[in-house]
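User: Before I run my own analysis I want an independent prediction to cross-check against. Here's the chain; please return only the structure tokens and, at the end, one sentence I can use as a sanity check.
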Amino acid sequence: MLALDVPALRQRRDDLEALAEHFFHTYAAERAPRVKGFSAKALQAIRAHDWPGNVRELINRVRRAMVMADGRLIAPRDLGLDEAAAAAPADRDALDRARIRAERDAIDASLLRAGRNITLAARDLGVSRMTLYRLLAKHGIGAPTRAGQP
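Assistant: Structure tokens:
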């Protein structure tokens, strides 16, 4: 069996616009012919949303918006993301920094509790070893080495 570890949408914000456009065109037959795409504010709301439902949530929101849109372009309210569009970019930046810091602190604490043992730390965090290695690289935390190895 081949196990793939695909990051959540909230970790792949650069892919969101392309995915939304893909689903818009995939379900084109379901939309009103007057709807031509997404407004800039809708795309901003898509990027700002955390997508706890991942791709399924994105598909469902895009399909709903295609039917519910009043104008030629899908608006944040059509996606059900009015509040996400209203969030100030500075607030999102602060939240992103806090989230990154919390993630790094959790990794550091887990490694400390596990005696820098990757398997135990990954189990403690509830992630695979490969995910923990990716997180270590993302945060610039040196991976523990075995005694006597470089």
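Sanity check: The first strand starts at residue 37 and ends at 38.
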